[in-house]
Specification:
With 368 residues, this protein is mainly beta. The protein has helices at residues 2-25, 75-79, 277-286; strands spanning 32-45, 59-69, 84-96, 101-113, 121-134, 153-166, 171-183, 194-208, 226-238, 246-259, 264-275, 295-307, 310-322, 330-339, 344-353, 356-367.
Length: 368
């Protein structure tokens, strides 16, 4: 139990640190902001057949948002068509008070404009990443049927298509449809995770400058060039059954990205990992006391969406060397990276094998 608390505290500190970096990185004006309140309804997606007993009804909840409206004072704001940067506090009733309870989340996000610039209406893609607290996680004595979430504290991801319609210079109507995911990356099992689909409706009010003047400057084209980086990561995961030993995993990535423009990078890379969680599987499988080979190596295709110093990487890879192939040949990665300096990279990513999350990777890297 003490180790569990220690790992969860470490996760929370690192995620909150990255959240503060993301918020600080945007350099948004503080004199112009919006407060928004929205209601939610939806349902939990049963992405595993043995989760059906947890779904008792529709989700209901609400959120409060503190939103900065960018005005183009920084070049990246004009490049991304004046996005909004916000902080959201979310409450969601999971319609199962005995086994799931409620979800409380806090996360920074950005609204990326999808339509042409208009003072009247905006169509946005909202991307958010933060923390969620589940009030009723798995407990082998008091809540053993809860097989989705094994810890109170979890990572939280929100993806939403939303629109904002200005009713006046101060009031805005907000509506959208989105997907949310909460899980702990196998720091504590079970970890099937919660996938939630919901629709939202609400209003926002602008404080400060209600006649925001957008700056439009001539911006030089992005240099189309290659960049190499090396990132070292470490992760922690628990094997089934719940309450058993936790294992560390280490990885090293070498990435090559080509800047096609300011927003997108594509490329490839190679990586190696040493996953101690495979030790038990290999020993049990072979009934051998000899030291098992835990090394994996593979190649991958990489894509990254970039906004100022923040990037959202997506990797698709294949293992070329894997001793027993327990997780299949293919691996995937999503997450967030932040350029602390011109060369230093902070990394929080989740490695998965198709729809099965393996573990969170915490790391630091160097870009040439």
């Amino acid at each position: 139990m003490r180790k569990t608390i220690k790992h969860l505290k470490l996760v929370s500190i690192l995620v909150l640190f990255l959240t503060s970096l993301v918020s600080k990185a945007q350099d948004s004006p503080t004199h112009d902001f919006m407060l928004s309140a929205q209601g939610h309804t939806g349902y939990i997606i049963a992405h595993h057949s043995n989760m059906s007993q947890l779904i008792k009804g529709h989700l209901f909840g609400g959120e409060l948002n503190y939103v900065f409206r960018t005005d183009g004072s920084k070049p990246w704001q004009q490049i991304h068509h004046y996005p909004e940067i916000g902080m959201c506090a979310l409450h969601m009733d999971l319609a199962n008070p005995q086994q799931l309870g409620t979800l409380e989340a806090i996360y920074p996000y950005t609204n990326i404009r999808l339509n042409k610039l208009s003072k009247r209406m905006s169509l946005n893609l909202r991307l958010g990443l933060g923390l969620a607290y589940i009030t009723k996680p798995f407990d082998r004595i008091t809540n053993h049927q809860e097989n989705a979430i094994g810890s109170h504290l979890n990572g939280f991801v929100n993806l939403r298509l939303n629109t904002g319609i200005m009713l006046s210079k101060a009031w805005r109507l907000d509506a959208g449809v989105g997907l949310s995911h909460a899980s702990n990356g196998a720091i504590k099992t079970p970890n099937l995770g919660l996938n939630m689909a919901s629709i939202n409706l609400g209003v926002g009010y602008v404080f400060g400058n209600k006649n925001l003047q957008l700056k439009k400057d001539s911006i030089a084209k992005a240099k189309k060039e290659w960049h190499a980086s090396i990132i070292g990561v470490v992760g922690v995961k628990e094997m089934m059954p719940p309450g058993t030993q936790r294992y560390t995993a280490y990885g090293l990535m070498i990435n090559m990205y080509h800047n096609s423009n300011y927003k997108n990078k594509i490329g490839g890379g190679i990586e190696m990992s040493y996953n101690n969680s495979l030790r038990k599987l290999l020993i049990d499988d072979t009934l051998s006391t000899s030291t098992p080979n835990l090394l994996r190596a593979g190649i991958k295709f990489c894509y990254s969406f970039n906004m100022h110093r923040v990037s959202l990487p997506i990797d698709f890879g294949v293992y070329l060397y894997d001793n027993r192939n327990y997780d299949g040949r293919f691996f995937h990665r999503i997450g967030i990276r932040y350029m602390v300096t011109k060369h230093i990279i902070a990394n929080v990513t989740l490695i998965t094998h198709w729809a099965v999350a393996d573990y969170f990777e915490w790391g630091i890297g160097y870009q040439l």
